[in-house]
Structure formats: structure tokens, C-alpha cells
Design brief:
With 676 residues, this protein is α/β, with parallel strands linked by helices. It has helices spanning 42-56, 58-61, 67-71, 80-102, 116-126, 155-166, 168-201, 213-229, 242-263, 275-284, 286-290, 292-295, 302-307, 314-342, 350-353, 360-391, 414-431, 434-464, 468-490, 493-527, 532-540, 564-571, 626-650, 657-674, and strands spanning 24-25, 401-402, 411-412, 545-554, 574-586, 598-602, 610-617.
Amino acid sequence: MSLQVEDPRSAETPAPLKRHDSLFGDAEKVSDSKHHGSQVSWMRTLSLAFQSVGIIYGDIGTSPLYVYSSTFPDGIKDRDDLLGVLSLILYTLIIIPMLKYVFIVLYANDNGDGGTFALYSLISRYAKIRLIPDQQVEDAAVSNYHIEAPSSQLKRAQWLKQKLESSKAAKIVLFTLTILGTSMVIGDGTLTPAISVLSAVSGIREKAPSLTQTQVVLISVAILFMLFSVQRFGTDKVGYTFAPVISVWFLLIAGIGMYNLVVHDVGVLRAFNPMYIVQYFIRNGKSGWVSLGGIILCVTGTEGMFADLGHFNIRAVQLSFNGILFPSVALCYIGQAAYLRKFPDNVANTFYRSIPAPMFWPTFIVAILAAIIASQAMLSGAFAILSKALSLGCMPRVRVIHTSHKYEGQVYIPEVNFLMGLASIVVTVAFRTTTSIGHAYGICVVTTFAITTHLMTVVMLLIWKKHVIFIMLFYVVFGSIELIYLSSILSKFIEGGYLPICFALVVMSLMAAWHYVQVKRYWYELDHIVPTSEMTMLLEKNEVRRIPGVGLLYTELVQGIPPVFPRLIQKIPSVHSIFMFMSIKHLPISRVVPTERFIFRQVGPREHRMFRCVARYGYSDTLEEPKEFAAFLVDRLKMFIQEESAFALAQDEEESGGAAGEEEKQLIDREVERGM
């Protein structure tokens, strides 16, 4: 940014220079470049749609490996039950991933980013619901922060906004829902490798029946060990193979499904009639309701479509889901149902037994690769979500390693990787079968769905301002379906459902406790802010020396002088020639453009050369390296001084304002060379 100020002494009508009285916004407004808009060309959209196949559909695409075996753990009692279950699978795929996520939820993105944190951040910008009160007027000037305020004519949105801002309980509930959803996604990232790899490896027993289940488990554990061991290298070099491998997988399962449909029983197409669902529940009663816990596994990984939206756009995801994923998995499930109508005794390993003999080994190899890719996608998503939780003050400070210089958002957290890998291996060894793991897996899936439904309802009321009938339909239809599925899964609590609940409680407790401490610390500093006059008196004492260099004092406060500063002066009666109170603040948006990163303010008299600086980041931003950060900080500080000097000159406060500004900038350069 360059600032050109006309000399008021040479102009007839000098233009007034606007002054920022609190913190200086050091960047001009720039146009917002959204990743999810409709401005992307169709060629780019097609490319993104193809790439999305390998990133976000691995989990839901490998579900046919274990859905029927999880739905019929005790075998098929009536062949017509297959029509009811197939109908449930098809309409679950249509209602939850397609209607809810692809055509509704994807539009509730935060400047292109999706996921639970994105919804929470979106709500945070319309209503002050964050428990740490660090909002500033300058935040609204950030490009990606700009939003259309709720209309004053819509009393419902205004009423809800006031209630959310005035109710501490409402703030806590929204925050709790957010970290619960995050905990469940982490649980999903732990269970996905276990169930995907184990179900894929189990197919080898079709060609090697002498292998025991224990040996299958050991092979799965070896693959899991390798999977978690290579996480530190990232997927930069092999990520380009994900989309082709998953695309081949979809072609294979669609082709095998079509083969089974034609060869075994075309009549299963009657399952598109929802009456078979009614007949299924009438015929089976409670056991039919319990079987929903297996059916819901057909939509595992759906939340990933929303969480990974930042890498693609809405149109690309809609195109890939409706054009590739849904036809492929639907044909696969239809083909398996046709096969089971003829061979109901093979339900324990439906997928592999329904494969034509010449296609078995190619399909087995691709299934292993697809399971690994599905696991990798969930792990990458879990790391990214935890990185966002870390930036929002919900997790202890851990080392976040960026595994790619080319692709933003690819991160690796060593401690988390170790714990998730250990948990995934323990689950595989302890549960041994995909049916048992499925009891735990389903709870993570449905709980995340339910949380998204509740947060989406708030978005519709507060931000979208939709008609109340539309909102009620959304909440009642999707909420009731998810509640029915959740009640079914909870019936398996003793048989494995307790695992994700206990896991979520542990992760939630950690996140809540850490955030609580952060809030309490912030409020303490806020209640004990040191007045500027007191700081000035401290610096004017003879025993306080100004030493060469640039000093930074980190504080959570975005305004005011922290209470630790007087204590520091008492212990070490010296201050650097240039001194800054530095805050790192995470805004409730996905990204802050670098030119809008810093805001400054002069603290005390100008001759003291003390400043307040706030460095602002979005929850998806990565922190710069120390040297890069320092260079950028100094550059922006000099621009701030130039602005202040220009303001003084324009207001004719001092004739030598421009010269003084140049002298200060030169002084900064000298002090930086002495040390920072």
C-alpha cells in the first residue's frame, strides 16, 4: 500500500484525511475472491469435480464393503427384507447427502470453507457469541469479514441475535455443539481406517480360506501401522493418484453392480418404491429398527463433503456427487441386493462374493487402495480440524507441521497422529470384525449430522432469514430422520456404541477445559489493564533505561496495556528503544489476506516509540516463519508511521511531520539490525 497525500499548503481545497482513532487498519479494502462462487469456468469446475472424487468420496465410496453385513449380522430371514433395506439405503443416500448436504448445507460456507467450525464462525460474525470478548470495530473492515447485516424489518432475526448475545447459556450451548461435532469428526478419523482397511483385507479369505480372522486382523494392523507412520511425509507426492484410483474404484463397483443386477434379479429395482420400507418395518418391528444402525453406514463420510469444501467449490461437489458418486454406489448396492436375493447365505461377505471370478484380484487390490485413500482423507481432515481448533484457542499448543509448500491446509500433528494411530490399532484388535466396529462408527456419523442440522437452523434463522415454514421443514424432516437413526445406534451402546461417546467426552473435556482457562486468563488481564498514564510515569523514571533493539511483549489483550508490563519493568528496569505490545488474534473467518494482517496504534507520547500491534489470522491461515513474520511486521510498522506522519502533516499539526516520519523509519531499520 502506498499513501499519497497532497500538501495542504499548495492545494486550494485539501482533501480531508480520515483518521482511525482506535487501531489503524493498514490495508485498503480489496475484493473478496470466493472459491465457491459461480465465476469459476466450467473447465476449472470439471477439473475440481474430478479432483474431489479422490479427496472427499473415499469414505462414502467404500461403504459398500460392509453395509449389508452390518445390517444383517444374524442373516437374512426373508428375501423381501432386501427390498426394504435397499429402499432405505437409496432414500438415505438421496435425503441426507444429496438433498441436505449437496443442495442446502454446502451453501452455508464461510468464504468457501465448510465444516462445524465454519458454521460456528459464520454465526459468530452475525452475533457476538464468542466467549472471549476480543471483537473490534476494525475486524469488519477485513475483506472476507464483510457480511450483510440482518434487516431491521425482520424482527425474528434481530430478536434471535439479541437473545444469543445476551444469553451466556446460548453461547455455551453453541460452543459445546461445535466442539462435540469436532470430537465426533476426530472419532470418525480414528474409526474410518479401522473399518475400511479391515473390511477390504477381509476379502482375501475368499481366495485363501485357510487364513483365520486373527491373521486378517494382523494384516490390517500392519497396513494401519504403515498408514500412520507415513503421515509425516504428507500426500504432496502421491495425492495426484487419489482421484484416478477412486475413479477406477467407482467404475468397478458400478460395473459389478450392473452385472449382478442383470444376471441375478432385475426385480430389485422395485426398491425405488418407498412402500417396501413400510412393509419392512411392519414385518420386522424392533429388529427392523435396530438394523438402521447398519444402514446408516451407507452415508459415512458425508460430512467430509462439507468440511473439505475449501479445496473445491459448490458446483464441483454437486457435479461429482450427482454424476459420479451416487450412480456408482447406488448401482453397487442394487447389484448386491440382486445377488443376495439369489444367495442370501452369503450376506456376511456380500461384496467380495458378488464379484465375478475374473475380476476378483483387480477389485481386491483397488479395494485396498481405496480403503487406504479413504482413511488418508479422514486423517487429513482430522488434522485440519484440530489445526482450526488450535487457532481458536480450543486446544493446547502443539506442533503443527505443514507437509506441503504447494497446497495450503495439508498439515500433520505428530502427537495427534500417534494417539489416533494407537486408538485405531487398538479398536481393530479389540473389535476384530467390521460389524462390531460399525456399532461405534455410526454414532460418530449421526451425531455430526444432528449437530450440523442444529447449527444450520440457526444460520437459516439469523443469516439466511428464510421463511419460518422452510426452516421448520428442514429441522423437522432432517432432524427426525437423524433422531430415528441415532436412537437405533444407541441401542448398540453396550456392543461398542460406548466407544465414540467416551472418546468424544475425553476430547470435549480437554477442549472445554483449555478454552475455559483461556477465557479466564483473558478476563483477568482485561480487569487489570494498566492505564497509559501509569505506563508513561514508569518510563519517565530515571532508573528505566532504553536499550538498543526492538522488543515485543506478547499479550492476549487486543487493546490496553497488560498487567504484566509494570511487573516486568520492576524486575528488569529497561525497555527496548522500540517496543510493541503484540497480540495474535484469530478472527471468525477462514482467511485474512496478508495485506490486512496487522493493525497498529501508538501507545503514549510519540517520543516513547511504543506501539500496540494486533496480528490477525483466520482459522485456516498458517502462521509465518519467525523471520518472515518479523520482516512483514517491521514493514507494516513503517507504513503505519508514514500514515501517522501524513495525517499530522495534513492537519498542519507540525510542519516537520514528514521529516520526523522518515527519521522514525530510519531509526526502526537501525534498531532492527541491532536485534529483535
